Amino acid sequence: MNDSVIKVHDKYFKKSILFEEIDKAIQDIADRLNEELEYKNPLFLSVLNGAFMFSSELFKKLNFPCEISFVKLASYSGTSSTETVRQLIGFDEDIKGRTVVIIEDIVDTGLTMERILEQLRIMKAADVKIATLLLKPEAFKGSYALDYVGIEIPNDFIVGFGLDYNKRGRNYKDIYKVVE
Ligand code: 5GP
């Protein structure tokens, strides 16, 4: 098998976005951030686990004073209902009054991002920007602006560059799409 096809658990994935293209998209986002947020003292919030690789590459390309913190969406079941609640955990910074840049790996329907935005509103962030490496425009249902988008992709399931399939596949530096 050549290295353009990988197997993760029971599925095959084919190489679809090379690291060079990913790196260029990240550089373009960084260039804009360097220009637009230089004097805003922004706090970058990386959403674990998927965004760890994107966050690291992006953060290295920023050249003004800024901070990064890592948060996670935790699911838990409420005691009085069976509904699953997703809450952002891991804040060790004061969000109130800050310019916050959310760093996400991928926006699909946009529901996860909606939940994060809601939490940041409650925490009274002064301004919230979104930087996502990938976007599936055909699936996106959000009514908010996506400020910094790296690469738009079709509705295929992908792995690599931090993204997983059942916890595996995050380690590849290129992005692979599922072979149906
Ligand atoms: P949304 O709430 O926007 O529908 O979904 C966002 C989350 O779903 C992402 O943070 C990511 O964890 C997961 N996701 C969406 N599409 C993909 C995909 O193609 N591959 C992987 N590995 N995760 C995805």
Topology:
Blueprint: E1 5-8, E2 11-17, H1 19-36, E3 43-48, H2 52-60, E4 67-77, E5 84-89, E6 99-107, H3 111-122, E7 127-135, E8 148-152, E9 158-159, E10 175-178
Parallel strand pairs: 3-4, 3-6, 6-7, 7-8
Antiparallel strand pairs: 1-2, 2-10, 4-5, 9-10
The protein binds guanosine-5'-monophosphate.
- Helix fraction, binned, reads 10-25%
What shape does the CA trace take? globular
- What fraction of residues sit in β-strands? 35-45%
The ligands found in this model are: guanosine-5'-monophosphate
Low-confidence stretches: 78-82
Helix/strand class: alpha/beta
Task: Quote the distance from N terminus to C terminus.
Answer: 17 Å
Q: Could you give the count of β-strands?
A: 10
Q: What is the CATH architecture term of one domain?
A: 3-Layer(aba) Sandwich
Q: Which fold does the CATH topology of one domain refer to?
A: Rossmann fold
- Helix-strand pattern: EEHEHEEEHEEEE
Give a short account of the largest sheet.
6 strands, mixed
Can you describe this structure?
The chain is α/β, with parallel strands linked by helices. The protein has a domain at 19-73 and 85-153: Rossmann fold (3-Layer(aba) Sandwich), CATH 3.40.50. Helix content is 22%, strand content 35%. It has three helices and ten strands; from the N terminus they run E-E-H-E-H-E-E-E-H-E-E-E-E. The strands form two sheets. Strands 5-4-3-6-7-8 form a six-stranded mixed sheet, with helices on both faces. It has a four-stranded antiparallel sheet with strand order 1-2-10-9. Helix 1 (19-36) crosses helix 2. The longest helix is centred in the N-terminal third of the chain and has 18 residues, at 19-36. Guanosine-5'-monophosphate binds at residues 50, 105-113, 157-159, 163-165.
